[in-house]
Design brief:
The protein has 292 residues and is of the alpha+beta class. It has four domains: 5-50, Helicase, Ruva Protein, domain 3, CATH 1.10.8.10; 53-144, Elongation factor Ts, dimerisation domain (Tetrahydropterin Synthase, Chain A); 149-186 and 244-274, Tetrahydropterin Synthase, Chain A, CATH 3.30.479.20; 196-236, GTP Cyclohydrolase I, Chain A, domain 1 (Orthogonal Bundle). The chain is built from twelve helices and ten strands. It has a three-stranded antiparallel β-sheet with strand order 1-2-5. A three-stranded antiparallel β-sheet has the order 6-7-10.
Amino acid sequence: MEVTANMVKELREVSGAGMMDCKKALSETNGNMEEAINYLREKGIAKSVKKESRIAAEGLANIYVKDNKAVILEVNSETDFVSKNEEFRQMIDTIGNTILNSDAKTLDEANELACEEGTIKDLIVSKVAKIGEKLSFRRFVAVEKSDDESFGAYIHMGGKIAVLTVVKGANSDVAKEVAMQAAAMKPLYVFPSEVPADVLDNEKSVLKEQAMNEGKPAEIAEKMVEGRIKKFYKEICLAEQPFIKDSDMSVETYVKNNHGEIVSMVRYEVGEGMEKRNDNFAEEVMSQVKGE
């Protein structure tokens, strides 16, 4: 069957793939549009595999709330440019809302959820083929609250940082203030009781060594460690941190003054803990222009 320009144009509009890819797909499938789409999706999978070695440490984090359930997630791209792409943002919205309306608890479960593109995994694969970058659904947490609790959702820098908090007794305004605090001050835990024993032991060892290097006797150094550990908690624990809008009180005291208590906090910063790209952006654009 002869492949016409109109057929190629139609397939391009449906798939978003390049002209030559569309022409080849139609040639390979004797002009069958549905089979050609499947051919391109299969090719998209091949592209996805080819890109697995590339670094996707940019992207966006976002939060989706419905009644007493919320989902916070992070989806990565290779470049910040793509993370601002409307299609990329729509993909994240589809993923977030699909999880919000499901019982998924793990990434594997989430990737198999049905959406308009088949599954979430299929959706990502198709966008990799269309956008031309490695895209990665990195993580999510689904959080449920009771009726006497409130969510605080805060997105910073257009989605580079997302914080989801839950407070009991206080309203959503208070919960959002707590989320904004966490976004700015980067706590690792909510309460001192959550700090792992090995982290605490290591910090105490370092602090004691510091004190002894200052010439303090061992027993004095031990007492100094107790005081410095309190300062350590104020740095890494949300509840202990000085409240940004009134440093005379802790975040925990601020919430208590508003008849509430902190329940939980999830903070995502895009790309944290991941290897970052350091190649030249101009070279990257040029390589894409050349089709490399």
